[in-house]
Amino acid sequence: MKEIADLCGIKKNLTTHTGRHTFSTVVALANNVSLENVAKMLGHTNTKMTQRYAKVLDQSILRDMQNVRENFSTKTT
């Protein structure tokens, strides 16, 4: 992680912990990977541990609510 930070000109101290957070939030959850699958990818035995790593993204909430709205509008027409 430190070599990657150096190559990218990132001054922050990157750790494997930072990498796990970034992967779970930015890569996996932001691309509709389920929490259960992220847990498996991280080697967690249950999703409770994964929830510590995985922050819910505002864009994910917006996308999910747009899906709800679309589902309601197609069912009423």
Report on this model:
This protein has one domain (2-76). 70% of the residues lie in helices and 0% in strands. It is built from five helices and no strands. Helix 3 (35-42) packs across helix 4. The model has no long low-confidence stretch (mean pLDDT 85).
What number of structural domains do the residues give? 1
Radius of gyration from CA coordinates: 16 Å
| First-residue to last-residue Cα separation | 52 Å
Class per helix and strand makeup: mainly alpha
SSE string, helices as H and strands as E: HHHHH
The profile of the biggest β sheet is:
none
List the quaternary state of the chains. single chain
What overall form do the CA principal axes indicate? Answer: elongated
> Total number of helical segments?
5
Which parts are unreliable, with pLDDT below 50 for 5 consecutive residues or more?
none
Tell me the number of strands.
0
Strand content bin: under 5%
* Helix content class: over 70%
- Roughly what is the average pLDDT, rounded to an integer? 85
Which descriptors apply to this entry?
77 residues, single chain, elongated, 5 helices
Secondary structure layout:
Blueprint (H helix, E strand, L loop, with lengths): L1 H7 L7 H13 L6 H8 L4 H7 L4 H19 L1
